[in-house]
Design goal:
The protein is globular and about 70 Å long. Helices cover 36% and strands 23% of the residues. The two termini are 26 Å apart. Helix 3 packs across helix 4. It has 364 residues and is of the alpha+beta class. It is built from nine helices and 14 strands. The strands form three sheets. Strands 1, 4, 5, 6, 7, 8, 9 and 14 form an eight-stranded mixed beta sheet that branches. Strands 11-12-10-13 form a four-stranded antiparallel beta sheet. The structure holds (3R)-3-hydroxy-3-methyl-5-(phosphonooxy)pentanoic acid.
């Protein structure tokens, strides 16, 4: 990835001869990691490789209008609206993010931006919006670069840069730009894998995963008590950290085979083991965090009992919070629907976001 982008400056000549304004818009989904990224180094680089399902229904739509600043300055000028409401706290976060990526997009300081964003999923629904939000924004910046400099014309290079920039905004966001599944982080068994950006995981992906379901059962919609930045930071002093990174890489090797041959048992086991490992790591950090709720554990027990009784391949995953991701293949959807409604929903707040694996980001 080319990070010296000193040519991406609007010259006086260009400015005099071209209208420097426009609007770009992207939709980008959230994602659910099966092998989790937990622990980072350097400039938002992962300590182990991760891989995720790209979601479909849970996404962010972002439009960015840009124009030349009326007076040149080094300041970053951004106005940000979320669901049509000006949001100063998000705005400050975006200014900080734009400031941190001037090296990639030097023209950022020559322009001013009006950004409008909406999420398809309710606020406090337990879905982290940083992956969809940051990737949608990064994709918009790449589109602005393309419009102004006629660069990034190759789609693969475009998405790779968008993934790189998304990563700088929120690590896991880099996986959201690709369809079905994407990996992030160097791993001997994944060709072209990199710590810098995600790689689409397509060629070896068994069809069964391309229509997989992920029903997000909301056990609690209250704010989580540890930010992911703080959580990653706690891994620096976690005595089990090195063993964990080795474990993640070994599990990745096993998972890749299961993704190829469609082995749902191995896929499901790894998914559950990774979810519990993530929470175990938080529980043994200093300070320790307990992000699961009693309802989370009740639902896990129900899922395991139902699977043992019926042999239906239904599994769970967790993000860094108490909500359950119920994972199953499409051909079991009707059976799982009954189970979910009758046995699991009473253990939730009554909210469930029914999602599936999706096609990744798209321009609007
Ligand atoms: O991208 P971040 O910094 O919000 O970290 C995400 C970490 C997990 O969601 C818990 C795991 C992952 O790989 O997505």
């Amino acid at each position: 990835m080319q990070t010296n982008n000193s040519n991406l400056i609007l010259t006086t000549d260009f400015i005099q001869n071209n209208p420097v304004s426009g609007k770009v818009a992207w939709q980008s989904p959230s994602n659910l990691a099966i092998i989790k990224y937990w622990g980072k180094y350097g400039r938002q680089l992962p300590k182990n490789a991760s891989i995720s399902l790209t979601l479909d229904q849970a996404h962010t739509d972002t439009s960015v209008s840009y124009k030349l600043k009326s007076l040149p300055s080094e300041d970053i000028i951004v106005r940000f609206w979320f669901h049509d409401l000006r949001k100063p706290d998000f705005e400050a976060r975006i200014v900080k993010f734009f400031d941190s990526i001037r090296d990639m997009f030097p023209f950022i300081a020559q322009l001013e931006f009006d950004i409008h964003s909406t999420n398809s999923f309710p606020h406090s629904s337990g879905i982290a919006s940083s992956a969809s939000g940051m990737s949608a924004l990064a994709l918009c910046l790449c589109s602005i670069e393309k419009a102004l400099f006629d660069s990034l014309t190759d789609d693969a290079i475009f998405l790779q840069k968008a993934s790189y920039v998304s990563r700088l905004g929120s690590g896991s966001a880099c996986r959201s730009v690709y369809p079905y599944m994407a990996s992030w982080g160097s791993h001997v068994e994944i060709d072209g894998s990199s710590d810098d950006y995600a790689t689409p995981y397509l060629e070896d992906l068994n069809e069964v995963y391309k229509s997989f379901h992920d029903d997000i059962l909301i056990v609690s919609a209250t704010e989580k008590s540890v930010s992911s930045t703080a959580g990653h930071g706690l891994m620096n002093d976690n005595p089990y950290a090195e063993a964990r990174y080795r474990q993640a890489n070994n599990r990745m090797t096993l998972l890749l085979e299961a993704l190829k041959i469609g082995d749902l048992e191995v896929f499901g086991k790894i998914s559950e083991d990774e979810a519990l490992t993530l929470h175990a790591l938080m529980m043994c950090s200093d300070p320790s965090y307990m992000l699961v709720e009693p309802g989370t554990i009740q639902i896990i027990n129900e899922i395991r009992a139902y699977r043992a009784d019926t042999k239906v391949p239904v599994y769970f995953s967790l993000d860094a919070g108490p909500n359950i991701h119920l994972l199953y293949p499409h051909n079991y959807a009707a059976q799982v629907e009954d189970f979910r409604i009758n046995q699991l929903m009473p253990l939730t707040t009554g909210q469930c976001i029914q999602d599936t694996v999706g096609l990744g980001s798209k321009p609007l």
